[in-house]
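Reply to dn_fold:

You asked what the input looked like. This is it:
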Amino acid sequence: MLGKLTSWARTAASRFRARPRQGTDPKAFSPGAFAFPPMRPLRPPPAQNDDLMQPVYEAVERELRSAGLLR
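and this is what came back:
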């Protein structure tokens, strides 16, 4: 089992070494090759639910007013 693995690894390594290298042209790595437009700044949306208990307060107040306990 180990012999098969090492022979496979040797074969794969020899194929990798035999391949010609691509992308080693200096012009391919020039700064102009990767000219992307500038990103717009990311900002979080405005807060909508700052006080999660506000609907509860309003419901309690409404019920107290309907019961005549608040004016």
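The two ends are 87 Å apart (CA to CA).
Hope that clears it up.
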